[in-house]
Amino acid sequence: MRQRNIFLIFAFYFLIFVFLTGCEAFRKKFVRKQAPRAPEKAYYVPTDYPKRPGDIEDEYNEYFTFWKRSQEELIAYLSGYYKKQIASSRRAIENLTYMRDMLKEEKAAKLTEYIKQMDLIHEEIKESHGFFMPGKSAEIAGELSVIYNDVRKNYPYKKIKDFLK
Prior knowledge:
Largest sheet: none
Helix content: over 70%
């Protein structure tokens, strides 16, 4: 009886030990490890597509629309949001530059003047960190509106299509 009690106590402790520690070591020992797979290499073949005749018109229209929107944003956010002012002015300048690059020299010259004015305004915004004196904000908004109206009236696709490169 005594041997049986010792055996039961030993078996009880053994079962508690096995349940508490788990069989992780046994599983690691007897389960096969999967071989690491090498990632598949991707091959990209660059393809140059020829320009279609309508591409430059579409591209000009896109840049004109992008410029128009960023100029409107810049005028709207001139009284606040410094980061928005900087981003909008930078985008407006970039889009005007792309538009200028698509035009012949006779029309591109006036657009270059507008780009220089926009560069000056961009630098003014950077220097002031978006905080203008009370009259300065209205003055800059007026300059931006003049540029906006001139470009909007003189450089839409309908008036410029004969001057595209």
